[in-house]
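testing teh design pipeline on a random one, pls ignore if ur not involved
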């Protein structure tokens, strides 16, 4: 799944090869496009992408919720971020399907690079990591509004990846049974600061 963009680029021959996106990432991108369309926004910004990550199922959505980035809160924060952020274009425009803005294209490219470095298809974890590292955009404004710390989320996401990520080949070779993804029961414990309340 690829979000529509305003510009088509010729691939750089020296660029990192593009990875396939997982079904979960395709679903998140569809949700982001739907968020923008439902609000009458011409651009799909990082705020729409963060909101889609919140609304998607999976351990990453649980981690965001544990950090205070909930469905209800992200809905309000998206509205504030879209109209106040200077780093991304105004979402109003001509009718038609929403188009991914430059910031979203940068996040998607960074997710592809991360996935290529880890030699797997683009995962929701790659997408969220790239979004949290991007900073200075609508998603960063949303996180600040909701009191979530991007650095703590990145640390917790690394812990989540250690629990749910792919098992190294040398470990798989020693295991007789198929490898399963393990999801923590409470992703908030990965944040540490929420576990005692």
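output:
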């Amino acid at each position: 799944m690829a979000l529509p963009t305003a510009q088509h680029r010729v691939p750089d021959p020296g660029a990192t090869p593009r990875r396939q996106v997982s079904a979960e990432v395709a679903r998140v991108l569809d949700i982001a496009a739907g968020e923008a369309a439902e609000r009458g926004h011409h651009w799909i910004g990082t705020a729409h992408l963060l909101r889609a990550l919140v609304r998607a199922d999976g351990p990453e959505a649980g981690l965001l919720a544990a950090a205070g980035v909930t469905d209800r809160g992200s809905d309000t924060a998206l509205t504030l971020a879209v109209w106040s952020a200077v780093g991304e274009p105004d979402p109003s425009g001509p009718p038609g399907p929403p188009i991914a803005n430059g910031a979203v294209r940068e996040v998607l490219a960074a997710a592809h690079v991360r996935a290529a470095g880890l030699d797997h298809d683009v995962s929701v974890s790659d997408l969220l990591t790239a979004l949290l590292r991007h900073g200075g955009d609508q998603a960063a404004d949303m996180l600040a509004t909701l009191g979530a710390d991007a650095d703590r989320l990145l640390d917790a996401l690394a812990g989540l990846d250690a629990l749910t990520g792919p098992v190294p080949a040398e470990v798989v070779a020693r295991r007789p049974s198929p490898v399963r993804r393990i999801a923590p029961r409470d992703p908030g414990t990965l944040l540490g600061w929420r576990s005692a309340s």
